[in-house]
Amino acid sequence: MNKYLIKGSLFTITSPESVTETVKRIWVDGIEILPEVGHGLRPFYECGFDWGDAGGNRSYTAALTICLSVFREERLAENLFVCFREEFVRHFPAQGFELYIDLTAFLITYKSRLRPNLYSRFCFSSTINSREILLYKDPLSGEVIADLAENYTMHNMMISNERLRKLNERKLRLMFRFLIRDRYRIKGNDFNEVVQKAEEIMSGFYWRSLEKVLRRKYMEKYRN
Predict the structure, then answer these.
(1) What distances in angstroms separate CA 196 from CA 27, 50, 126, 192, one per listed residue?
(2) What is the pLDDT of residues 130-156, one digit of tens each?
(3) Which alpha helices (H) appear in the chain, and where do they start and end?
(4) Cβ atoms within 10 A of the Cβ of 62, count?
(5) pLDDT of 157 over the 90 cut
(6) Cα(153)–Cα(171) distance, rounded to whole angstroms?
(7) Element housing 136 (H / E)
(8) pTM higher than 0.85 for the full model?
(9) Confidence of residue 213 (pLDDT cuts 50, 70, 90)
């Protein structure tokens, strides 16, 4: 069964120091889940729940914690929670909700993320919003591989028009390979080692891209 009842509620809490704050809580099939569970896997996001378009980092924690409750496996939850946030969490009503979600179509759409030996890791310098990158571990050699050109195009998975998405992905992939040259494919025998290499490359790419944007704006300003 791929159908689940998700409930989100807002509670106002006043501390002994008379500081008032709003806390958001979530239940899956009647059982409350806690943000500390998702935060334990991804401490880079905030330890708290939020949802809707303005959910920020806490919406990633909410998505990951819900996925942990639903899929019961850390690897699957980590591979799917960013997509789950885009498909569901960012559309949850801001003032609280109680609704059933059917994951059948979702699992078909993102079936590539169900592959054995595929893993998601947090990469601070990644240029996609969630800063997650995918890595593949060869089941025979144990070698860990990250294709940063593929990771760079991941955010376009959310474009609904498939033809437009493919064209954009191809354009971005080729651009990334041109700028990074032969360094877009990283290999190693340890997850942390590969992610560290990815951090170094993505950080350089980020600042290089930012420099190009600023230079273009500067030229446009003085051209006009």
Answers:
(1) 36, 29, 11, 6
(2) 788 899 999 999 999 988 877 766 655
(3) 35-41, 57-71, 74-87, 104-109, 148-152, 162-180, 191-223
(4) 30
(5) no
(6) 9
(7) strand 132-137
(8) no
(9) very low
